[in-house]
Every structure is written in structure tokens, then in C-alpha cells.
Amino acid sequence: MTETMLDRAHEAMGTAPDDDAARLRFYERLADAELYLLLETEPADETIAPQVFALEEGRFALAFDAEERLADFTGAPAPYAALPGRVIARALAGEGIGLGLNLGVAPSSFLMPTEALGWLAGTLDHAPERAEARITSVAAPKGLPEAVISALDAKLAGLAGLARAAHLVAVGYRDGRRGHLLAFETAAEGAEAALAKAVSEALIFSGVELGEIDVAFPGMDDPLTARIARVSLRFDLPEPEAEAMQVVTSTAPGMDPANPPKLR
After folding, report:
1. Could you give the percent of the chain with pLDDT greater than 90?
2. 256: in domain
3. pLDDT over 70 (residue 232)
4. Domain match, 175 and 111 both
5. Distance CA 160, CA 245 (A)
6. What pLDDT is recorded for position 209?
7. Is residue 258 part of a domain?
8. Contact present, 169 and 231 (Cβ < 8 Å)
9. From the CB of residue 43, how many other CB atoms can be counted at a distance below 10 Å?
10. How many other β-carbons are positioned within 10 Å of the β-carbon of residue 55?
């Protein structure tokens, strides 16, 4: 099978076991990935029953980052729920159940104990704060670590259809504060919170103690938009595919990260 995003992140983490940034990137990829959670029975409404295995290290539910890998593990058709890793982490956190990823079927085979799942769920619950400030100066971004740029690029590449582009600039504010700003161009209606949270997560999982990057959504007719575009580092977000456009509006059971499925 083709190497997956989680395989690469797991390999990087294993190659540098003392590198906190590599470990954080693995957890971020796990949170963003669609995983196939092995179930005892077919899901019913908002309730799922993960199949739990008792190992020497504790009790673990099993998930795989491809249907083929789940099939390789079970050797026969089996019920499963396809959910984002962040949803699974929130559902299992506090239940005393860890997560086994790709066990026995991939190089990214990994046991994530319940304590690590709790940490991940708590980290993902962090929400950016809303604030108002008047911008007085705009310039090209300067001095940002490459790890932060790479983290933003990777995160934004997974947000197809939520905005056309994002512009990174250095800014000064009326109150004397200086920093960096990511301005989104033509954000989809209602996508502001998701975009702001994505930027927050990119910073947290970059492993760099940067502080913060502000996020803004200026309109195309706002004079600030043209000023920003002239000096910015631009990130183009991918266009959504037809199927992805349908998923954005989906209300499938358990897909809302803020309301994970109930376990039984």
C-alpha cells in the first residue's frame, strides 16, 4: 500500500525520539486524519461501540488510516466508523481507553495510552480569543521560524473550500503592539471560527514558542486588503472537489468534533 501521511509523520517521530516538534507534528496529523475505528456492532444514531482489546499496556480501541489496513487486520468484513482523529480522541478521552493505530498492518503501528489521548483532546479544545484592534502599519513578514511557515502551509492545505487564500504579514497596531497577521481572502460563510482554530492549532503543534498570530477576515473592498496583498506571503487554499463540497455541509452522526459520538 502507498505510504500515508501518518506513516511519514510516525517515521519522523521515531527517527528523532527527543524532538518534541516531530512528536507534536505526529499528533497533529493524527488529529487531522480520517480514521476507521473498529466497532463491535454497526453504529446506531449517535452511539458507537468500539471494539476494545485488553493488552498488557491497558485497554485499547483500534483505528486505521485506510480501509485496506482495517481489512488486513480483521481478515473479514467488520463494522467501523470513519471519523476524524480529533473526534475519536475526544470520544475516548476520560473513558480509560487508549488508541491503537494501524496495529500489525503498517509501519505507523502505534499505541497511544489514555493519558496521551486526554492531552490531545485538551489541546484540541483550545480556542482562539476574539479581539478588536486597529492596524496602523503593514509590512512583509520577517523573522518567523521556518517551522511555523511549514506548519501553516500544511494546515491550510487541508482546508479546501473554506477560503480562496491567506496572506501573512507583519503588522503594527494603534496601541503600539507589533506582531504577525494572517488575513483570509473570501472566506466561506460561517468558516471564520474553523479557520481561526486551524491557525491556532498550526502554531501549537509547530513546537515553536512563537506566542500568537492574529487572524482577520477583511472584505475584498476593504482598503486594508490591497495593502496586505502587496507585501504578504500568500498561501493558496485548494479548491474543493465535488465530494468534499458535500462533506462540508454534512451532519453525519459523530462528525462534529465538539460533540463526539457516545460510547457504549
Report:
1. 68
2. no
3. yes
4. no
5. 9
6. 73
7. no
8. yes
9. 18
10. 12
Q: Is 254 or 63 the better-scoring residue by pLDDT?
A: 63
Tell me, what's the pLDDT at 45?
Answer: 73
Q: What is the pTM of this model?
A: 0.79
Provide the 10 A C-beta neighbour count for residue 226.
11
Residue 242 covered by a domain: yes
What's the rounded Cα separation, in Å, for the pair 20 and 161?
31
1-5, 6-10, 128-132: the lowest-pLDDT one? 128-132
> Is the same domain home to 83 and 178?
no
| pLDDT at res. 1 | 67
- The chain-wide mean pLDDT, for the chain, equals 88
CA nearest 37: which of 59, 2, 1, 69? 69
Three-class HEC string of the chain: CCCCHHHHHHHHHHHCCCCHHHHHHHHHHHHHCEEEEEECCCCECCEECECEEEECCEEEEEEECCHHHHHHHHCCCCCEEEEEHHHHHHHHCCCCCEEEECCCCCCCCEEECHHHHHHHHHHHCCCCCCCCCCEEEEECCCCCCHHHHHHHHHHHCCCCCCCCEEEEEEEEECCCCEEEEEEEECCCCCCHHHHHHHHHHHHHHHCCCCCCCEEECCCCCCHHHHHHHHHCEEEECCCCCHHHHHHHCCCCCCCCCCCCCEEC
Residues 88 and 181 occupy one common structural domain: no
Looking only at the bridges linking them, the beta strands covering 165-173 and 233-236 are antiparallel
Q: Do 15 and 121 share a domain, yes or no?
A: yes
Quick count: other Cβ atoms within 10 Å of Cβ 185?
Answer: 21
Q: Residue 164: give the domain boundaries.
A: 135-248
- Placement of cell 451532519 in the chain: 251
